[in-house]
Write a structure and sequence with these properties.
mainly alpha; Arc Repressor Mutant, subunit A; Tetracycline Repressor, domain 2; 10 helices; DNA-binding
């Protein structure tokens, strides 16, 4: 007699069917478990970031970890399922910004919207910034976001509203800095980072009086990737 998995014996939940059942659609109870796992992962990763484990997700979902592994082979598989859509929302936000007839207004809208989404979700923030996650869907979505950010920067500079000595890679670093502000102020108010967004925007805007000269060159795309990879590895 085959052994029975008791890891998902929470009332109201039905154990998943065994793997190897072909490509048939998930049973309703299995799909309910999958959605329960995704909801739990969204909450856990939003609070703790991608350092959270599948055991953490299983506990939050009130499921056995075996049930989680039947739906997702490992944590990367779960991260892909959860955050590819989140990054594509940022891509959509960039497209909306590019459609704004005012280049500066579009750039500001993207910077604020992206900062808000990531301030509310630590896991999304790390998925966007970390090259160690997303070998497929997330990596493709990130690759779609990068040229859009470059276009937003180039358009605002061409309009004369954005200082000419900044690069798209500077915006990636600024987004990360705003998330540090969000972490510092989250115990007091969820919008603390918006104060620093105002300071950042004043520093980015081109002014008739001129801007403080930047003392070093921006990072290249390759240098930024290496810097983020090294920082993530040390963390």
């Amino acid at each position: 007699m085959s052994s029975v998995d008791t890891s998902s014996s929470t009332p109201g939940l039905v154990p998943d069917p065994p793997r190897g059942s072909g490509c048939r659609p998930l049973r309703k109870d299995a799909e309910r478990n999958r959605q329960r796992i995704l909801a739990a992962a969204r909450a856990v990763f939003a609070e703790r970031g991608l350092a959270a484990t599948l055991d953490d997700v299983a506990r939050h979902a009130c499921l056995g970890v075996g049930t989680v592994y039947r739906r997702f082979s490992d944590k990367d598989d779960l991260v892909e399922a959860l955050f590819e859509d989140g990054i594509r929302r940022l891509v959509g936000l960039a497209d909306e910004a590019l459609a704004d007839p005012d280049a500066w207004s579009g750039l500001v809208a993207f910077l604020e919207g992206a900062s808000r989404q990531m301030a509310d979700d630590r896991g999304l923030r790390e998925a966007v910034m970390s090259p160690h996650h997303g070998h497929s869907g997330i990596a493709v979505a990130r690759g779609e976001l990068e040229p859009r950010l470059e276009a937003l920067v180039a358009r605002a500079q061409a309009s004369g509203q954005l200082r000419p000595d900044v690069s798209a890679t500077d915006f990636v670093v600024l987004l990360k800095a705003l998330q540090v502000a969000a972490d510092i102020g989250c115990a007091v108010t969820g919008d603390y980072w918006t104060r620093h967004l105002g300071l950042v925007l004043d520093g980015l805007r081109s002014t008739p009086a001129g801007s403080t000269p930047l003392r070093c060159a921006p990072l290249s795309a390759g240098q930024l990737h290496e810097a983020l990879a090294g920082r993530t590895h040390r963390a």
